[in-house]
Amino acid sequence: MKVTYGLENFQTLSCAVATTGTFDGVHLGHRKILNQLVAKAREVHGESVLLTFSPHPRLVLQPDVELELLSSQKEKIALLEKTGLDHLIIHPFTKEFSRTQSLDFVREHLVNTIGVKHLVIGYDHHFGRNREGSFEHLKEFGPIYGFEVEEIAALDIDEVNVSSTKIRTALAEGKVELANNYLGSTYSISGSVVKGDQIGRTIGFPTANIECDFEHKLLPADGVYAGLLHVNGEVYPAMANLGGRPTLKSAQRKLEVHCIGIEIELYGADVKFELTHHLRDIQEFDNLDELKKQLAADKSEATRLLAQK
User: Fold this and answer.
1) What kind of fold does domain 2-161 have according to CATH?
2) 189-245: per-residue pLDDT in tens?
3) Residues in contact with 190: Cβ distance below 8 Å, sequence separation at least 6, in sequence order
């Protein structure tokens, strides 16, 4: 997949099969569209193109509304790499760009810049200033500018029974297994390992304190999770505490990950933690010995669950 930053840097194709949208999280509903896009490109001997935007349009148009996203740009690129897409265009989204009329968007960007000959869009897709553009507009523009339009029916999208709202709700409730089913991949949090207070070392459970590198990342509900830690090309079974640490009288929300079965120096490393299972809610214990016993039980359960993957 070739990634181009800015429409002005894209080389016009002779036969582009394109779609457009934010595709946050690249969930199963998105993949339904992308699979159709890639299949159509192969059928007509063209090249598949996704036009997306950065930052997310709502961050520009509704800056006062707190928005949590399923994927950073880096994460989205990695997910899209796996879809068979030929081209990804990431165009800067500004207030000025948001005022582009639907006709100008189609003519200048889709036709003249990308070279679209086939357009594949999801059900009820809107575009252009004030979301004025619709499937009906595209059907009108198609014969004029020489492209065909294919809308993926609501029934086909509903068939996979997925929406970003459902995924966000599942994560907000700590139901990472359900969220992962909707996503078709494992939800992950990326960041760098920073210095912690190192109390975990004193009870035999050293942890890596991960500082998320994307400020708008949606973090799941507080809890203890099993998962996989990716660092320097290696993958380790792990468990994590996301949230406060009431036994230590700390309410600060942190993500602390313990590698199971191996002790490695992670300070300063860029890592990714995949959340595979919710183990339990966060609890307050009477003392560190009680906490240590529970962590041992968590480790045993995490090991059992991860062995099944």
Assistant:
1) Rossmann fold (3.40.50)
2) 999 998 776 666 666 788 889 999 999 999 999 999 999 999 989 999 999 999 877
3) 72, 74, 75, 212, 213, 214, 270, 271, 272, 273
